[in-house]
Amino acid sequence: MRIGFIGLGRMGAGMAANLVRTGNEVTVFNRTEAKADPLVKLGARRARSIAEACHGDLVFTMVANDEAARDLLFGHEGILASLPRGSTHCSSSTISVALSRHMADLHRDEGQRYLATPVFGRPEAAEAAQLQVLAGGDVDVFAQVKPLLAVLGQHVFHVGPRPEMANAVKLSGNFMICAAMEALGEAMAFASRHGVEPEALTEILTTTLFNAPIYHTYGALIASRSFRPAKFAAPLGTKDIRLLLEAAGAERVPMPLASLVHDRQLRVLATQGEDIDWSALGGLAFDDAGIAPKGA
Ligand code: NA7
């Protein structure tokens, strides 16, 4: 299969690399061209425009947000104008359910096929082909694309026939991670004040009651309070909860805990800047309790 891959940021770079490594003919494009260099070294072809990355059977996109996804889609050299009829767009970016729904209509009007294919996992998982891949869209299109999605991760789920169903699951998952980070931070601050090291608390809880990947990964990050450099940047995580709350509002679904973690995310951005991992949310409880980082 001839594949295009657009968006070689922290996540896209690893995903595209795995498609190249498994012997696919991959043409890559990134707005900032230099980020394509390592992929070209690995064997990918370099596209000089979005349109050039759209000449194959399928194009993946993995960009920051709705604005970026729209920038790729529209214009005379955009994906809608360039992707051949019958070719497929797999959109892996975490975008709004509204935009994903709209993209499905636009692609259908152009005779193109569209799957929403967001993923769970951080850049390390993308690099190691250990992502969890969610897919929404026509089941026959999914069946054809599934072997490629399987290259990216350990599990591939078909969520349902409408693409935005996959985006809804992705936003739900990221909300639950934020809630877990807030809970971890508060529990660690509480235990610290009682003489229990955050690492010890994490060890006990993640090997017993909370033996789940999210508690392991974020427990370690929050216990060490090491949030830089950002692997998953706080502004992107904040965007995800904003998208969740917008979609929840549109469907009249109150989500009080999501509103709370969104405020906590805003506090991270306001007080610690943008270039920080979203797990800094879990560190706020220490700050609130006046517990300084070790060695500070
Ligand atoms: P990064 O590492 O911040 O990468 C973002 C990517 O999006 C990167 O390739 C950017 O290109 C690209 N981007 C951003 N805005 C635009 C516009 N307007 N046009 C074209 N390309 C753009 O993010 P991650 O890889 O961590 O995350 C990607 C998605 O996965 C995101 O939805 C997360 O929420 C989950 P650049 O290199 O800046 O030129």
How do the helices and strands line up, and which of them pair or pack?
Elements: E1 2-6, H1 10-21, E2 25-29, H2 37-42, E3 45-46, E4 58-61, H3 66-73, H4 79-82, E5 88-91, H5 97-109, E6 113-116, E7 119-120, H6 123-127, E8 131-136, H7 139-152, E9 153-160, H8 163-193, H9 198-206, H10 213-224, H11 234-250, H12 256-272, H13 284-288
Parallel strand pairs: 1-2, 1-4, 2-3, 4-5, 5-6, 8-9
Antiparallel strand pairs: 7-8
Helix pairs in contact: 5-8, 8-10, 8-11, 8-12, 9-10, 11-12
The protein binds ligand NA7.
In terms of quaternary structure, the protein is single chain
Largest beta-sheet characterization: 6 strands, parallel
Order of helices and strands: EHEHEEHHEHEEHEHEHHHHHH
Task: Report mean pLDDT, rounded to a whole number.
Answer: 97
Order of strands, main sheet, comes to 3-2-1-4-5-6
Number of extended strands: 9
| Strand content bin | 5-15%
What is the rounded Rg?
20 Å
Count the DSSP helices. 13
Low-confidence stretches: none
* Overall body shape: globular
Helix content, binned percent: 40-55%
Structural class: alpha/beta
Q: Hetero groups bound?
A: ligand NA7
Distance from N terminus to C terminus (CA atoms, Å) equals 54 Å
